[in-house]
Amino acid sequence: MERELERLKEKEPQQDQYDLGLEWRIQKTRLRKEGKVILKADEVPWQMSRQGYGRNYLGPHNWDQMAAPSWGMSRSSHIVEQRGVHSHTGGGVLLYILEGRGYTVNNDRRFDWEAGDLEVIPVTPTENVHYHVNLQPGQPCGRVRFHHWALQETLSYETRQVQDAPTWKGPKNEAVYRPTDFVPGSATLKGMDISVDGQPRDLLDAIYSRRNGWRRRMAEVPLVVKGKDLPLENNRMGLYRWYLHPDIPNVVCRHFLFWSHEIPPGSRSGKQKHQGGRVHFVVEGTGYTVLDGKRYDWGSEDVIMLPIKTGGCIFQHFNADAHNPAKLVACELNWLDTLGPDLACGLEQLENSPEYMG
């Protein structure tokens, strides 16, 4: 027995799983704190892929370097008539049209768009087979794409190629193409027809009632939010046009907040304390953001990220051009009804924009 006890004492102590978890979380916090706030456009190379010409700003290749990880953001541009065809299971992707005029065919449903519009790839139990067409071949046609890994994981999101872009001259890679069993038979399985009229009889039926309303909205509302139809809102942070917001009912998805922010020449936004995790794409203009007392300069097609951090971050945007406006588009996850607007740090307005008339 004594020899057995001696052998037990000689064994190396096992790594404590609790401490491992704490150390992992500390490392994640450190990476966000030290991560990039500005990703300059000239740091992101243009590349030709089987889907077409584009640049990949954010994704698994650089999440460990970013202040707001888990975002996917890419920018496409083409002058040819059509890009490649691919299929998404899950859906929920946003595409902001930067330039040109054209249309998308998604599951045989066509919807037209132009610069300033927001295209929403719908959440569906099957798939979204789609392609984009340039109605002005020879002229640039492009968009910036937004998605978030947490939502993609929840939706079992996956993308496979259906047809390569006509500009792609590279080799075939059979592993990336859509297989015949890409969408399982269970995706189209139908259960009981649960119709809920009036007050649901119980809380489970209340969920089915929400489901029925979701399906109706998905079938009826347009898949493109037209920028030219949006009112210009003069709020405490500046001049906004809201594309997606919890209080805007007739949209396909409410998983994101999405808006454009116009800053007049030489002006600035309001100052706000926010949890972070928000990303901005600079559509046009030059300026800088003061984040927690530090200045970050940006220009056209740069990406601005607000870090996720304990206590939140304090930020304000400035237009450095005295003669021309600046325009950003911003996207963040819609946690308002689940985790609350404060997001464990407190959402606070510290200064109004100069244009605010309230």
Brief summary:
This protein is mainly beta. The protein has four helices and 24 strands. It has helices spanning 2-10, 17-34, 149-154, 203-220; strands spanning 38-39, 47-49, 52-58, 71-78, 85-90, 94-99, 101-106, 109-114, 118-120, 124-134, 141-148, 158-163, 224-225, 233-235, 238-244, 256-263, 271-274, 279-284, 287-291, 294-298, 303-305, 313-319, 326-333, 348-351.
Describe the structure.
With 358 residues, the chain is mainly beta. It has two domains: 41-169 and 213-220, Jelly Rolls; 229-351, Jelly Rolls (Sandwich). The chain has four helices and 24 strands. The strands form four sheets. It has a seven-stranded antiparallel β-sheet, with no helix packed on it. The chain has a seven-stranded antiparallel β-sheet with strand order 2-3-4-11-6-9-13. It starts with a helix and ends in a 7-residue tail after the last strand. 33% of the residues are buried.
Strand content: 35-45%
Order of helices and strands: HHEEEEEEEEEEEHEHEEEEEEEEEEEE
Gyration radius, rounded: 23 Å
State mean pLDDT (0 to 100 scale).
93
Structure characteristics:
Jelly Rolls; mainly beta; 4 helices; 24 strands; 7-stranded antiparallel β-sheet; 2 domains; 358 residues; 37% strand
Sequence-ordered SSE layout with sheet pairings:
Elements: H1 2-10, H2 17-34, E1 38-39, E2 47-49, E3 52-58, E4 71-78, E5 85-90, E6 94-99, E7 101-106, E8 109-114, E9 118-120, E10 124-134, E11 141-148, H3 149-154, E12 158-163, H4 203-220, E13 224-225, E14 233-235, E15 238-244, E16 256-263, E17 271-274, E18 279-284, E19 287-291, E20 294-298, E21 303-305, E22 313-319, E23 326-333, E24 348-351
Antiparallel strand pairs: 1-21, 2-3, 3-4, 4-11, 5-10, 5-12, 6-9, 6-11, 7-8, 7-10, 9-13, 14-15, 15-16, 16-23, 17-22, 17-24, 18-21, 18-23, 19-20, 19-22
